[in-house]
Amino acid sequence: MNAPFALSRGGVRLVDLADPNEVARLEGFVAGHPQGTPFHRPAWFVAVAGATGNRPLALVQELRGEIVGYLPLDAIRSPIFGNMLASTGFAVGGGLLVRDGADPQAVFTAAEELAQRLACPAIELRGGELPEESGGWSLKTESHCNFARRLAADDEAQLLAVPRKQRAEVRKSLANDLTVEVGRSQRDRAAHYAVFAESYRNLGTPVFPRMLLDSVVDAFGTDADILTVRHDNRPVASVITLYHKGAAMPYWGGGTWDARRLRANDRMYYELMLHARRRGCTAFDFGRSKTGSGAYHFKRNWGFEPEPLTYANWTAPGAAVREADPSSSRLSLQIAIWRKLPLGLANRVGPLIARGIG
């Protein structure tokens, strides 16, 4: 249970996330808010905190008994990268949601006080209402972009919506001996994690604990599933997708070394677009990528236009800026070494590190 926390002004308090009625109230607020994302849902930030040993938190601002401001947070602790509050942890979205009558500055002040109380010298807000650049806050724009567009009306139209060069790759993937499965079973989860772990090792990134991925799939229920591409019954590409307000959001995906030769990733995303439309989605949200990265250009090749994102960061007075950006020069050597680790060793050590990245 969260300890009591309130300001003398602003009507801001810390929610008791052990109370199912409070959790249901937050879920309803997110569902009814036009800027609500899956990453604002308790189903996300409570699940990922529990699976990584971190702490979920939620600040609300109320006016006449109604929520007018809501900020979900994960308190993430890492001996390598340092401690921080993230809105929200292990996500590409989050931040403060407000309605008429809210006082955003009161919520930001409450978040600062909460961070200091929990010995977290940093806060990162990944979207939502943003603070002004003052009092330790800074804004970071265009370091990442999001990619989203509407789905086409039928299978052939979806293929034709892909630019010519990428469409040729999809057609080649359709001619390969690949099978596609969609589900949420232990078979689906095991296949996904095997592919995901190898993909992360190849990228030089510590892999998340499998419990984290399983917890999200469990928490989201029918709003999440796993699509896996197999070759000779062996998984070569797989992705977990979240579904929110008519949009399919592929989130944790990857492919083995053979995936490129087999064009399994091309098949995976095309099949996911078809699957998403069949289950009633009207949009495909390809998610964020670092500007100029390989993933950034891959999504542009599919005909998606980049939308720059703005994040807000707060650093406590006198504290060093938290550094967990894989593109930084400080981490480049570690990434190069990680790529050369045996897969078994990377899979054992990786989750212990990744749970603190956030």
Write a concise keyword list for the protein shown above.
12 helices, 13 strands, 2 domains, globular, alpha+beta, Aminopeptidase, 38% helix, 358 residues
The fold-level CATH name of the largest domain is Aminopeptidase
Task: Average the pLDDT over all residues and give the rounded result.
Answer: 89
What is the radius of gyration? 21 Å
Outline the biggest β-sheet: 13 strands, mixed
What is the ordering of alpha helices and beta strands?
A: EHHEEEEHEEHHEHHEEEHHEHEHH
Number of helices: 12
Q: Tell me the overall shape.
A: globular
Sheet-strand content, in percent, reads 25-35%
Domain count:
2
Helix share bin: 25-40%
**How far is the N terminus from the C terminus?**
22 Å
Low-confidence stretches: none
* CATH homologous superfamily heading of the largest domain: Gcn5-related N-acetyltransferase (GNAT)
**Total strands:** 13
Highest CATH level, the class of the largest domain: Alpha Beta
Class inferred from helices and paired strands: alpha+beta
**Name of the CATH architecture of the largest domain:** 3-Layer(aba) Sandwich
Protein name: Peptidoglycan bridge formation protein FemAB
Domain BioF2-like acetyltransferase: 167-300
Give an overview in words.
With 358 residues, this protein is α+β, with helices and mostly antiparallel strands. It has two domains: 12-145 and 310-322, Aminopeptidase; 152-281, Gcn5-related N-acetyltransferase (GNAT) (Aminopeptidase, 3-Layer(aba) Sandwich). The chain is 38% helix and 27% strand. It contains twelve helices and 13 strands. It has helices spanning 20-32, 42-52, 104-117, 155-160, 164-175, 186-203, 210-220, 257-262, 264-278, 294-301, 329-338, 343-354; strands at 12-14, 55-63, 66-76, 84-87, 97-98, 122-125, 137-150, 179-183, 224-231, 234-244, 247-255, 283-290, 306-315. Strands 1, 2, 3, 4, 5, 6, 7, 8, 9, 10, 11, 12 and 13 form a 13-stranded mixed beta sheet that branches. A hairpin with a 2-residue loop joins strand 2 (55-63) and strand 3 (66-76). The two termini are 22 Å apart. The relative contact order is 0.16. Residues 167-300 form the BioF2-like acetyltransferase domain. InterPro entries: Acyl_CoA_acyltransferase, BioF2-like_GNAT_dom, PEP-CTERM_FemAB-rel, PG_Glycine_Bridge_Synth. It holds the Pfam family Acetyltransf_6. This is Peptidoglycan bridge formation protein FemAB. It comes from Novosphingobium endophyticum.
